[in-house]
């Protein structure tokens, strides 16, 4: 069998090659996408019946970008809905679509579906292998070792037309490519599939931790999709480590694990190991009493070489805590992608997450970039209404230092699709741009994988305030929100100023309603798994929003231009809001 080193070299050599001639590869990628999907209803609408094969690369690219419009999910949604309803004629792709993925965000208040094909799984496998290859250059690991991986597959469901729907990660963990990834990178997840797909965050995390410790000497690195999960898993561990030690000692499983499949799979793997249990106990006692859990990971997993996970973007606030648990172990920021397409790979795994950018994979999709200019003094990323956009440019024309919104044309039937992410070009890897993730456009509320925009929040609050007016003699005068991550699990706080009298029972119901009405799949899954806590409604004293406006106007000028931010992280505002809170409720929507 080939050594993993040789495999790593091969995959890196391939990537260096495609990066070198990224512009050409992009033209070829566009051609392949259009050839594969030639004649589908959507393309016919814009391109007519042009014969893609007879046109040269340059003309094809300019025809495509001049005839096919830039769209957002809402524009493609009618096609995707028809697919979901079971229509089998080629609408977006020639390959029949039998699976849909749930991407983050919403369209018109509904969960956002995107088509998923074999290509999606294959490109995930490709980027995981590539990423493993770059990591191994800086942090070589032992072949055949294990990964303590905090990964979770949600439950899928069927559409009316019988298509399977789930998150992209759910599809991937269930696919043969996930097995291939482990074999090719010669690193094996500690937990069996039953644990990954258990569906209950608390129970699955317990089992991940238990098995991670049971196999602790074999663990070569610790990973999760988003670093938030690592923080959460270890803060749970601080509370339950004694129970886990007890299970290792006796080869048993705590009664908190109630899912039969999970119990069976884990019990099959473990045998009583009293000496390991007392060794772990000794370390944990020291970590708890003397070290405030600093360096938990290297102390419990002495052979771990690094921690790998997405640590950029909305994960930056968790970095401090990850570093605390890592106690000096390198943090490797994982790659940049979306349900719609993979985008870039971290070719500098040795860099701290704050400095990481991602080299665009020119074979994954055809990329365009809309130059974005935002006012220098824009303080709060919560509002991005003031943007000026230029005409989109291809990959070959991006400039270092410029910010862009990413536009994708994918193998899975998305054509000139605005992803909503703002990135900055920080340099080039050979001929392919390196992107640093700046933020998700229009996003205001996010804790982990949830992504809610101002519009989503507005909808939820509108509905609940209608309920309030219907059931009481009160009305909502103004509102704002905050994603609170100071305590685990994080949760949304919505602040209301109300006029009139409302009984607690009615407000409690409004709180529950708002929690239940956020339909973004990331939010729903996180709430179900309790990796996001119950939404909180805080009612503030009359006049609080006026007070905030005055404070802000004092600082930033004209009252007539003041708009209540619908989400705030500003500590002055939060202090005013919290000091003025007279009542607070927690939702029971997911109890
Ligand atoms: P989803 O489609 O739900 O998987 O979410 C994809 C979104 O997550 C992207 O469009 C980004 O906004 C964000 N994201 C993914 N990877 C990264 C990364 N490495 N750094 C920062 N944000 C990321």
Could you explain how this protein is built, in words?
Residues 455-570 form the GH3 C-terminal domain. InterPro entries: GH3 (IPR004993), GH3_C (IPR055378), GH3_M (IPR055377). This is Indole-3-acetic acid-amido synthetase GH3.10. Belongs to the IAA-amido conjugating enzyme family. Residues 359-440 form the GH3 middle domain. The protein is α+β, with helices and mostly antiparallel strands and 591 residues long. Helices cover 41% and strands 22% of the residues. It has 20 helices and 24 strands. Strands 10, 11, 12, 13, 14, 15, 16, 17 and 18 form a nine-stranded antiparallel sheet that branches. A five-stranded parallel sheet has the order 6-3-7-8-9. The protein has a four-stranded mixed sheet with strand order 2-1-5-4. Helix 2 crosses helix 4 (57-67). The longest helix has 24 residues, at 227-250. The chain is globular and about 70 Å long. The chain binds adenosine monophosphate (AMP). Adenosine monophosphate (AMP) binds next to strand 1, strand 10, strand 17 and strand 18.
Q: Which regions have little confidence, pLDDT < 50, spanning 5+ residues?
A: 377-384
Whole-number mean pLDDT? 92
Structural class: alpha+beta
Q: What spatial form do the alpha-carbon principal axes imply?
A: globular
- Counting copies of identical and different chains, the oligomeric state is single chain
Fraction of residues in helix: 40-55%
Question: What tags apply to this protein structure?
Answer:
591 residues, alpha+beta, five-stranded parallel β-sheet, 20 helices, 24 strands, 22% strand, binds adenosine monophosphate
